[in-house]
Design goal:
signal, 21 strands, DUF6160
């Protein structure tokens, strides 16, 4: 009995100690423990693979309408934008592959485009009460993102399969392979290191996400193929006139950089606007408002018909500038681009 009593006492002390150890740590306590306030997180992913991606439009395009209107040719039947493997390179069997950057020879990592930590991203998270009165508290996430190699396979449009029923053995929906048309044969993006700042709760910085950084090495898009299935015949494998392959506009490379540099200055604000009266809200990206020098674009290896066709030459654009009108007033153009995304 005495042994049981001692065991119970020791257990009680242990439980009490563990309970104290598991109490929430405030910012001061965390600072004393880690040497700094806030939380640092390193994301050590080196590769992400997605077999297929579908974006389903559940009501399709309305059947009513005439040429040039939103309803032209519609059936009001669900369709989907799909991304799947194109049988070549990194996207042979996967629709999207995101990996740490590699050098041009493909033999080693490109350390000039990687964070010094080797992480995919490093996050520094702080919570703050904010200034003034009202609901001013917010979480600030300062993010450093490594350069990435992003390979995207074939992008097409397909008829959507029926949505999974209640009690189904799988949540997969997918598309109808017998009703599918490719739109893009694939592409690869190479990005450089970037910084971003994210604020949730209140956003004293003026937007939920702020990008104000330089992408080292600029942005490069390679092996972009735009397909025209209206010219496709039969099996579409190109073995004969009766099986003509879809026509393709193929571009070997598109390089984008700030004018007169090899790097790309990136500034953007991403905001999500809520419901107002009859408008149910939207996402808006305002970018390029600080780029007063313009952007240089170099397009090489432009081929018409197929990727095997001879190139018609290179295309170069120097000092491209865009403007938008934030107020709608005549002549109130400002430098930058505003992109609004919403459902319908």
């Amino acid at each position: 009995m005495k042994k049981f009593t001692k065991l119970a006492l020791v257990s009680s002390l242990a439980i009490s100690a563990n309970a104290m150890a598991m109490q929430a740590m405030d910012d001061a306590t965390l600072g004393a423990t880690t040497g700094q306030d806030g939380i640092n997180i390193g994301i050590g992913l080196s590769k992400i693979e997605i077999e297929k991606l579908f974006i389903h439009d559940n009501n399709g395009l309305t059947a009513a309408g005439t040429a040039g209107t939103a309803g032209f040719g519609g059936t009001s039947t669900a369709g989907a934008i799909s991304i799947k493997g194109n049988g070549a390179g990194a996207t042979a069997t996967n629709g999207i592959v995101i990996s740490a950057p590699v050098n041009a020879a493909g033999t080693a990592y490109d350390t000039t485009r990687m964070l010094a930590t080797g992480h995919l991203a490093d996050l520094s998270i702080d919570s703050d009460a904010g200034t003034g009165t009202g609901n001013t508290a917010f979480i600030n996430i300062a993010a450093k993102v490594s350069g990435l190699d992003i390979a995207i396979g074939e992008i097409g449009v397909t008829a959507s399969n029926a949505a999974p029923a209640v009690g189904a053995t799988s949540i997969r929906r997918g598309g109808d392979d017998a009703n599918y048309n490719a739109v893009l044969s694939g592409l690869t993006l190479k990005t450089g290191k970037m910084d971003a700042n994210i604020q949730v709760g209140a956003s004293p910085q003026g937007a939920m996400i702020i990008l104000d950084t330089t992408m080292i090495g600029g942005l490069e898009i390679t092996n972009l193929g735009i397909l025209d299935n209206s010219t496709r015949q039969g099996a579409g494998d190109g073995t004969s006139a009766a099986n003509r392959a879809a026509g393709e506009i193929h571009i070997d490379s598109i390089k984008v950089a700030t004018a007169n540099t090899t790097d790309l200055a990136v500034d953007a604000k991403v905001s999500v606007y809520g419901k107002t009266d009859t408008n149910n809200g939207y996402l808006q990206i305002v970018a390029g408002t600080k780029n007063t020098t313009g952007t240089d674009i170099y397009v090489s290896g432009v081929k018409l018909g197929s990727s095997a066709a001879a190139s018609i030459g290179d295309i170069e654009v120097q000092g491209l500038k865009t403007y938008y009108n934030p107020t709608g007033a005549f002549g109130a153009n400002v430098i930058g681009t505003a992109i609004t995304v919403s459902g319908h």
